[in-house]
TrEMBL record:
Official protein name in the record: DALD3 protein
GO molecular function (one): arginine-tRNA ligase activity
GO BP, sorted A to Z: arginyl-tRNA aminoacylation; tRNA C3-cytosine methylation
SUPFAM superfamilies the record matches: Anticodon-binding domain of a subclass of class I aminoacyl-tRNA synthetases
Length: 413
């Protein structure tokens, strides 16, 4: 249930970093199997904080809890839940502060050691977040025009618990930065006709097995070679990331776990995007080998190219629909809305996946129709060089967009 929100947070962080925004990430997982899946999905998060700094932060929070007028100490007894340190009255604080947008059912929170550890990890991440502007406050990890300093990316099933942590943070650490918390909520993930509940690790292994079978069907015995292991792993990660991130984060995702949903030929899949990225790599490696063999001259400098040779409609479509608007696409994908009275925000992170899928479809159509590397006749070189320069830019866009998804470009499939 965490997988979608974690992948969304990871993608959002990469998009913000691409805009020069300094970001720290705080994990919210303790299950070792979940961490193993995230490592395989190339999520670059710390596995959790530790050491004396975290212990000191927890001790400070306990001390603040003892001084808090909203908190009531809990003596361990027959009627007390195990591990509960204190009861904190969240509702009265929310009403007193006039906070808007919180669940009206927020009432009494039973604070445990684990609760304080989660809060200490959040504090530590905010304090350690690098700041581009040395005059800015330590908590200002987002631009001054942003609507918040802390974004809680959480699935809808756990939104209530995250709101509790948010309010507890405001109570125990009333610094300015805690007033700038917002929540980015992911819709539910449903599975069609599940025979039994499926966890993230089972989902990953299922998709990996399906990707392997699909590769064997398409490429035969080649796909069973050990050299294909990394390729199939990358295709599996691409398939899962696109499956989880191509839908607006507020909407429900319905997973079809049947084999036919992971086809390497499907134009809506991450595998299709990776396949077209690999086609570009193959094109340029083929050209480079031909240059080394003396078949073609090297690609001239851009200033010497004749772009008037680009007369195909598909060439101008690639330029005007993808190359020119790409920086704006990245910016809009991570753009957080202006401040509002509520606590929920949205982000158009699905834009990048949709952009890559559409780019792959239009590039594939053009590539299948136009012969890029023609006969080695001098009068054809101008057009070939112009096309190679155009497709080199398309390749760069593929690589940059895939980097926001922590996906390495494949050189061949």
């Amino acid at each position: 249930r965490h997988l979608r929100s974690v992948l969304l947070a990871d993608h959002l962080a990469q998009l913000l970093r691409a805009q020069g925004v300094d970001v720290s990430l705080v994990p919210a997982l303790s299950d070792e199997r979940s961490w193993d899946v995230l490592r395989q999905l190339r999520v670059c998060w710390p596995s959790g904080s530790g050491g004396s700094a975290l212990s000191d932060a927890i001790s400070a929070l306990k001390a603040a809890l003892g001084r808090c007028p909203c908190a009531t100490a809990c003596e361990q007894g027959p009627g007390t839940a195990e591990g509960v340190i204190s009861k904190v009255h969240l509702k009265s604080f929310v009403e007193q502060q006039g906070l808007l947008g919180y669940d009206p059912n927020l009432d009494v929170l039973l604070v445990t050691e684990r609760t304080l550890q989660s809060l200490a990890e959040l504090q530590e991440a905010v304090l350690q977040c690098p700041v581009s502007d040395p005059t800015a406050q330590p908590a200002s990890c987002f631009p001054s025009s942003s609507c918040c300093s802390i974004v809680h990316v959480v699935n809808c099933e756990e939104e209530f618990q995250q709101q509790q942590l948010d309010v507890l943070w405001r109570i125990l650490d009333p610094g300015a930065h805690t007033a700038l918390q917002k929540h980015l909520v992911c819709g539910p993930v449903k599975v069609t006709n599940p025979s039994s509940p499926i966890g993230a690790d089972q989902y990953f292994q299922l998709r990996k097995h399906q990707m392997y079978e699909a590769s064997v069907i398409k490429y035969g015995e080649l796909a069973q070679d050990e050299a294909w292991t990394e390729v199939i792993d990358t295709l599996t990660v691409a398939a899962i990331r696109f499956e989880m991130l191509s839908t607006a984060h507020r909407s429900q995702i319905t997973l079809d776990l049947e084999n036919n949903s992971i086809s390497t030929k499907g134009t809506k899949s991450g595998a299709f995007v990776m396949y077209n990225c690999a086609r570009l790599a193959t094109l340029f490696s083929t050209f480079q080998r031909a240059v080394e063999q003396g078949t073609y001259p090297p690609l001239p400098p851009v200033s010497e190219l004749n772009f008037s040779c680009l007369r195909e409609e598909g060439e101008w479509l690639l330029l005007f629909n993808y190359l020119l608007p790409f920086p704006e696409v990245l910016q809009q994908a991570a753009q957080l809305p202006p401040p509002s009275k509520g606590i929920r925000i949205t982000a158009s992170t699905e834009t990048v996946c949709k952009f890559l899928i559409q780019l792959s479809m239009d590039f594939s159509s053009y590539y299948n129709r136009v012969h890029i590397l023609g006969e080695p006749f001098p009068h054809l070189f101008d057009q070939m060089f112009a096309r190679l320069q155009l497709l080199g830019a398309v390749r760069d866009v593929f690589h940059s967009a895939l980097a926001t998804l922590h996906l390495p470009p494949l050189s061949q499939i």
